[in-house]
Amino acid sequence: QSCFPSFGVLSGPAEWRAAVICLLGEKPFDKRLIFGERRESSRQESLSLDRHTTHKMSTLWKLTQMCCDIAGNTTPTMNGQHMNEEVVREMRRQTFRDCRAELAKLINETNCHPIMVRLAWHDAGTYDCKTAVGGANGSIRFEPEINHGANAGLKKGLELLQLIKDKFLDVSWADLIQMASATAIELAGGPRIPMKYGRLDVFGGADCPPEGNLPAGGAPWPAGADGPQKHIRDIFYRMGFGDKEIVALSGAHTLGRARTDRSGFGAGDEGSKYTAGDVKPRGDGQEGYGNPGGKSWTPNWLKFDNSYFTVLKDKMNGDLLALDTDKCLFEDAAFKPFAEKYAADESAFFKDYAMAHKALSELGSKWEPADGMYIDPPTVERLQECQEVLKKMVDEVNCHPILIRLAWHDSGTYDAKMPMTDWPNCGGANGSIRFEPEINHGANAGLQNALNLLKPIKASFPEISWADLMQMASATAIEVAGGPKIPMRYGRLDAWAPKNCPKEGNLPAGGAPWPGSASTPQQHLRDVFHRMGLSDKDIVALSGAHTLGRAYKFRSGFGLDEKGCKYTTGKCLVRKDGKEGHGQTDGGQSWTPKWLSFDNSYFTYCKQKGGEDLLSLDTDQCLFEDAAFKPFAEKYATDESAFFK
């Protein structure tokens, strides 16, 4: 709109579409030009432009970029200011946050937690991992799917969500349904689920899956199953889940009631002891009832906890519901250990449920952007859990040095002179090293191995950015090796494409000829580190990380080959804790004898100009030769605590 003020104020989605058609060159701009079927009510069309701006800026990004290229600009503008893609993404993330806030208000006011969970479950739970049909794609809003027997009563859930959809036209139905479920779980006292958003909607009834993909409550069991455990395995295995996920997801029955007029199980409007009268089923003690009737699995059926399992285990009275598919969780030999665990340990249930729910919510989804988006930073608990996984891997694999090098090389490309408005093109700790061409830069030889080590952990913690994961891995490796505990901060955003990779040549060289105008190693180090905004003290302190690791000649041009030296072959005890640990391969040349121990020995050996079989580059030696570097190097050689600090 800033580029084409003659369009005036575009007051609704129909006018936006007309403007798009004009920009595409198909027709002259006319506010009466409507693209496709006109379904917006007069109330919807009167919504302010701001309501639509966020997602339109995202979906029209390429078109806007094209228009700016034609005009000779490099980036789109908004209110006269240049934007980058991260600005657009953050605008879209804020739309999701605003939508979630509206959902929370709706759920708290209407006590519709159970129907929101059921609606999302039934949209996603149709998925077939062998055919890739069904899943969390919003198809449940169409006939014939919404009329399937298992979905009886769910039209009410859609009607409630329509109130939110009218306000957030740019949030897909698939996302809205899954967001409502996760929000309901959390509001009921359950875990915060690390949800991903950006699902695309299917377009009509032709995309609906066949009937019969959801669990039955009792016999006769579909598809010839000879019992409830066989039946629920048929259903969940088809989706790609295992026995643990079956039991964890069954725990969602801690919420809600079954009605005979919908599922054939439970009770009618007469209800039961816990679903009629003046009971308060909410966990927070507030009045909350919904329509009377039905039969619940738990007494507090608007509270998310592990009571589904404790009630099942105790085999409580007939006022509570227990279907055959519930009872079998404590009868089947493979299900029972999980059910017993969740009955005894609510935190274990919450942890496993959150991950199973997340996986369920993503079945069969297609995404825009292609990898989806997270609207919240990871929780402290998830960060701590990830750190423990990293500690275990580092301890087992002895990969301390390569993880430190990976993080250093991702962040060490930063140019402090470039404004942060140019992020992520200014380099730095943004995860761009995972892309070509950066990972193939000469200085990064061998670092693909580090990425391969981190990939399984990233898959287990998808809400943690690559940028955070790399830096966490580095700090964890230093601590495991005996070094200081680094007060790390998390919440980094990832660069999103290869075009965000910095140019080659931003990292330190090991020897002459020196890049740029430098004629000495100390000048070269200052060129590199001062460009990042770091000081002489920082240069010396960070150089001390060479207490860990080895240099391979075929990677950096320095050090030794696979034959190694006396410290890098055989069974040398190079770990500080005395455990056997040699790294994944022999070879290379280390700066210190115990090159899996983080201490100040780099400086003590550097002061001696290395030692037999030890590496000492010109960029190491200059730390004790340069007048400004030397006081710090001398201090660190004699005072390990000062170096650690």
What does this structure look like?
The protein has 645 residues and is an all-alpha fold. It has 25 helices and six strands. Strands 1-2 form a two-stranded antiparallel ribbon. A two-stranded antiparallel ribbon has the order 3-4. The longest helix is centred in the first third of the chain and has 26 residues, at 85-110. The protein is elongated and about 90 Å long.
Describe the biggest sheet? 2 strands, antiparallel
Q: Which structural category do the helix and sheet elements fall into?
A: mainly alpha
Radius of gyration: 30 Å
Name the overall outline.
Answer: elongated
**Which percent range describes the beta-strand content?**
under 5%
Roughly how many Å apart are the termini? 53 Å
Count of DSSP H/I helices:
25
Low-confidence runs of at least 5 consecutive residues: 26-59, 65-74, 78-82
Number of strands: 6
Which percent range fits the helix content?
Answer: 40-55%
In what order do the strands lie side by side in the largest sheet? 1-2
- What's the pLDDT, averaged over the residues? 86
Helix and strand topology:
Blueprint: H1 13-23, H2 42-45, H3 49-59, H4 61-71, E1 77-78, E2 81-82, H5 85-110, H6 113-124, H7 155-165, H8 173-187, H9 228-239, H10 243-250, E3 257-258, E4 295-296, H11 307-314, H12 324-327, H13 336-344, H14 346-361, H15 380-397, H16 400-411, H17 448-460, H18 466-480, H19 521-531, H20 536-543, E5 550-551, H21 553-556, E6 589-590, H22 601-607, H23 618-621, H24 630-638, H25 640-644
Helix pairs in contact: 3-4, 3-5, 5-8, 6-8, 7-8, 10-14, 11-13, 13-14, 15-18, 16-18, 22-24
